[in-house]
């Protein structure tokens, strides 16, 4: 077995890191630019990234940071990936040992992660993680889109790139996000954080991302990320005062058609596997099940 070393990741590694993530997560949209953005945007969350390398080739990646979406004391998150052909050679164990030291320095008490296959779940279990909620990742072949849905008479569709009052959109976005199924309280971003961490993500396509307006109120939003000819639903939500009217479904339909018309070929979306209403909406829009993502959680001090 060739020697594997673990070292700090740097800007020159970003493309190789993206390739590793893509090799492990077929529905993930990631690029060198998005990794560079995350390194800067989540620096205030203590983000650290390391790579596993053999013979000059990056074969594994790990990152760890304070979980900015959690209210729990000592909440941290970790993301680890090793190219399939290099798994079971010790790279993952070395990466995990290195990130554990960083997480301990952040005061880790609760660690979150995700896995998309039995091998990932088994690796996590060996490091003390238990399984939680399951998300369904669905795929839509944009060549086979159902007809675009009609826009209600009282609704005006606006591109994200055309929104003037971002603070009002942020307020509606936060209200809509409270409907996301979760086992623990969700912490929305403050306005400036939202602008940097979410709107500033280079994957977010501000022309394909759409919002619905009823008068001066943002009733729904459907954000699409794009990398190459693939798109992913970053968030689809509805203002509580407008639920049940189908605004988000209409938006998502129009966003998918716009993506297809600009050359995108496939779309992905993620939903809690028990969220029957949203799964029904996605089926209506042409999505079919693609894979499952299992939430992982470990309580206790990192590395203990």
TrEMBL record:
Q: Which positions fall inside the N-acetyltransferase domain?
A: 4-152, 153-304
Q: What sections of the protein cross the membrane? A: none
In Gene Ontology terms, what is one molecular function of this protein? acyltransferase activity, transferring groups other than amino-acyl groups
Keywords attached to this Swiss-Prot or TrEMBL record, sorted alphabetically, are: Acyltransferase, Transferase
Q: Check the record and name the Pfam families matching this protein.
A: Acetyltransf_1 (PF00583)
Origin, by domain of life? Answer: Bacteria
Under what name is this protein listed?
GNAT superfamily N-acetyltransferase
* Source organism (scientific name): Phytomonospora endophytica
């Amino acid at each position: 077995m060739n020697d594997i070393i673990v070292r700090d990741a740097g800007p020159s590694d970003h493309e190789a890191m993206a390739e590793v993530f893509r090799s492990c997560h077929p529905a993930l949209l990631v690029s060198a630019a998005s990794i560079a953005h995350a390194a800067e945007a989540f620096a205030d969350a203590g983000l650290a990234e390391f790579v596993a390398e053999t013979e000059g080739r990056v074969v594994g990646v790990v990152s760890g940071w304070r979980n900015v979406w959690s209210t729990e004391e000592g909440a941290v998150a970790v993301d680890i990936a090793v190219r399939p052909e290099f798994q079971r050679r010790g790279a993952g164990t070395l990466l995990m040992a290195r990130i554990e030291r960083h997480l301990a320095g952040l005061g880790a008490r609760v660690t979150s992660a995700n896995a998309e296959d039995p091998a990932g779940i088994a690796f996590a279990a060996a490091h003390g993680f238990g399984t939680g909620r399951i998300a369904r990742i669905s795929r839509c072949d944009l060549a086979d889109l159902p007809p675009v849905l009609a826009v209600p008479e009282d609704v005006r569709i606006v591109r994200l790139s055309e929104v003037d009052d971002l603070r009002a959109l942020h307020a509606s976005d936060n209200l809509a996000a409270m409907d996301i199924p979760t086992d623990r309280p969700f912490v929305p971003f403050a306005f400036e954080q939202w602008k940097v961490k979410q709107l500033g993500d280079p994957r977010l396509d501000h022309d394909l991302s759409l919002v619905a307006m009823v008068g001066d109120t943002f009733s729904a939003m459907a954000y699409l990320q794009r990398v190459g000819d693939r798109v992913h639903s970053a968030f689809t939500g509805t203002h509580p005062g407008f639920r049940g009217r189908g605004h988000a479904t209409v938006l998502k339909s129009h966003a998918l058609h716009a993506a297809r018309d600009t050359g995108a070929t496939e779309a992905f979306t993620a939903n809690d596997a028990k969220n029957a209403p949203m799964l029904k909406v996605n089926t209506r829009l042409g999505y079919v099940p693609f894979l499952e993502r299992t939430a992982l959680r470990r309580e206790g001090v990192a590395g203990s």
